[in-house]
């Protein structure tokens, strides 16, 4: 008989918690639909002056375009062991040679990324030739060994 009462008490408590969560989620959804602060929806209507103290959210509408963060580009990879490898990644005009293992990532070397030039006419040759990624990996392997 005691086990039945404990189970019944647990069911009632669970129903009360789920009911409270449902009630709060409905109040928050209504306040967000109005464009006001989410916390303002939790306050009773007679406490509206307290809701004015909480800053409101801007109404949904056209937003200012966000600038996209620069992408990280993986230029080359080279396996140097069972689960270890060297990775050449480019970000923000800098090339990073990274040592990647199971336990972490460490920066082995950095250098400026080569400038990508526009296509030149056939009779002109580029003044500076970019360093190929394989050469970077070979240099990093020599510095690690």
Automatic annotation (TrEMBL):
InterPro entries: Flagellar_biosynth_FliO (IPR022781)
Region annotation Disordered: where it falls in the sequence: 117-137
Keyword tags: Cell membrane, Cell projection, Cilium, Flagellum, Membrane, Transmembrane, Transmembrane helix
Domain of life, per lineage: Bacteria
Keyword match Transmembrane: yes
TM regions (residue ranges): 6-24
GO cellular component, one term: membrane
Localization in the cell: Cell membrane
Keyword Transmembrane helix recorded: yes
Short name of one Pfam family: FliO
GO BP, one annotated term: bacterial-type flagellum organization
Stated name of the protein: Flagellar biosynthesis protein, FliO
Organism: Microbacterium hydrocarbonoxydans
